[in-house]
Amino acid sequence: MSFDLADFSYSRHRPKSHSTRTVSHFTIRVKDRVVGLPVDCVKTVFHFDKLTPVPLAPREIAGLANLRGRIVTALHLDRCLRIDKGAPSSNPVAVGVCHNGEDYALLVDDMGDVIVSDEADRVEAPSHAEGHMMTLMSGCFRYDQGFLSIIDVGALIRSVALQSETANGPGISKKSARGADR
């Protein structure tokens, strides 16, 4: 029997997963980063003709858009995640999501493929990850020699609602901000 220390290296071999539960994520590009978005929260992907600005809104809110007769709040995902590096796309894509019955559009630079991961491959956030971004993530999965951080849509909406309340002062009740009740 030969013994090869490399066979026991975590980086080369991982224990076989006994889990049969898989999860699917869209990969999306936000400036120079690739992150994941759960497939089950995505309603549609579209391009918009016009955004109507919202006065006094936090900088994360791009404006309001019309999606098949419904008004959706469009969010700059790069600003929500505080990603400053990289050039934004000149033709962003809007990813339609729903949270607490309200429709939102996440403005991203590009859509990627759907990837399917085994739930057993979920890993904790790397220690070098930015604190704010990790508060908006539901987890990470191994992906292309690295990690794919998965956006928690509920945490993202709550974060923007909280920033909106803070920006508008005490005159706005905490329950009045959309998405803040969860």
Brief summary of the model shown:
Helix content is 14%, strand content 40%.
What does this structure look like?
This protein is mostly beta strands and 182 residues long. The protein has one domain: OB fold (Dihydrolipoamide Acetyltransferase, E2P). A five-stranded mixed β-sheet has the order 3-6-7-5-4. It has a three-stranded antiparallel β-sheet with strand order 2-1-8, with no helix packed on it. The protein has a three-stranded antiparallel β-sheet with strand order 9-10-11. The termini are far apart.
Q: Largest sheet, order of strands side by side?
A: 3-6-7-5-4
Q: What is the name of the CATH architecture?
A: Beta Barrel
Largest sheet descriptor:
5 strands, mixed
| Head-to-tail CA distance between termini | 57 Å
Average pLDDT works out at 80
Instruction: Give the helix proportion (percent range).
Output: 10-25%
What structural class should be given to the helix and strand makeup?
A: mainly beta
**Uncertain runs with pLDDT below 50, 5 residues or more?**
1-15, 172-177
The ordered string of helix (H) and strand (E) elements is: EEEEEHEEEEHEEH
- Total strand segments: 11
- Shape, per Cα inertia axes: globular
Instruction: Give the CATH level 1 class.
Output: Mainly Beta
The value of Rg in angstroms is 19 Å
CATH fold label: OB fold (Dihydrolipoamide Acetyltransferase, E2P)
**How big a fraction of the residues is strand?**
35-45%
Tally the structural domains: 1
